[in-house]
């Protein structure tokens, strides 16, 4: 057995190849229930039920030839001010009626246009989502659609694909694997005032979490 080891960065600390800024055709390929995550907004602590959305951008390629992906964590709410509702309505080119029941998993597999901006640190984030124009050939995703509820995650019946991005946890103060991010939710970790860093979590930089309360 050799004891010569190669020093490298783990996935959480590695510099992720950033999506180019601008508008891009996209397909929503994943929707993951992240449970109720601890957050602070305007100095007030709260628990918010979050959902992770992942889009594949088939026309934007990384150095390895694979499509870029971009993700966003938003509050799982269809309140009239909620970002999820605005994005869902834009993707469908239709309004959701107040009081109506709407299955957000029906958005998975739909084509849209994603507007990507870079923050002051150069990290890409989703600025806006709009419907895909009529008459334009829709993009074709290479990633299989993935939907996972919290019960399925806890039961281990739906392992997260390796392409689901790591997440910045505001409560934990570091970047963690998507599995560790979900395990920090109130439904799994309990309702303590501040979640503890899950075993195996690694620090990193960058954030894709939704900074607003809706």
Describe the structure.
It is a single chain. The chain is mainly beta. It has one domain. Helix content is 12%, strand content 34%. The chain has 4 helices and 8 strands. Strands 1, 2, 3, 4, 5 and 6 form a 6-stranded mixed sheet that branches. It has a two-stranded antiparallel ribbon with strand order 7-8. The longest helix is centred in the middle third of the chain and has 10 residues. It is globular, with a radius of gyration of 18 Å. The C terminus is likely disordered.
Topology:
Elements: E1 22-41, E2 44-61, E3 67-75, H1 83-92, E4 111-118, E5 124-131, E6 146-148, H2 150-155, E7 167-169, E8 174-176, H3 178-183, H4 186-189
Parallel strand pairs: 1-6
Antiparallel strand pairs: 1-2, 1-4, 2-3, 4-5, 7-8
Supply the key terms.
six-stranded mixed β-sheet, disordered C terminus, 8 strands, 4 helices, single chain, 214 residues, mainly beta, two-stranded antiparallel sheet
């Amino acid at each position: 057995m050799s004891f010569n080891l190669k020093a490298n960065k783990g996935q959480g600390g590695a510099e992720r190849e950033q999506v180019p800024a601008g508008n891009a055709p996209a397909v929503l390929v994943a929707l993951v229930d992240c449970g109720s995550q601890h957050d602070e907004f305007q100095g007030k602590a709260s628990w918010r039920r979050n959902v992770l959305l992942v889009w594949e951008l088939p026309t934007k390629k990384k150095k390895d030839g694979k499509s870029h992906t971009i993700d966003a964590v938003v509050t799982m709410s269809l309140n009239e001010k909620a970002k999820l509702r605005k994005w869902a309505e834009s993707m469908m080119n239709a309004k959701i009626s107040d009081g109506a029941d709407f299955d957000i998993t029906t958005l998975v597999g739909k084509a849209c246009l994603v507007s990507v901006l870079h923050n002051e640190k150069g990290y890409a984030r989703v600025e806006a989502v709009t419907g895909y124009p009529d008459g334009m050939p829709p993009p074709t995703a290479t990633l299989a659609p993935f939907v996972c509820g919290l019960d399925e995650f806890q039961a281990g019946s739906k392992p997260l694909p390796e392409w689901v991005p790591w997440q910045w946890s505001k409560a934990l103060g570091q970047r963690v694997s998507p599995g560790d991010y979900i395990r920090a939710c109130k439904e799994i970790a309990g309702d303590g005032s501040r979640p503890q860093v899950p075993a195996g979590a690694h620090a990193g930089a960058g954030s894709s979490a939704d900074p607003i309360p809706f």
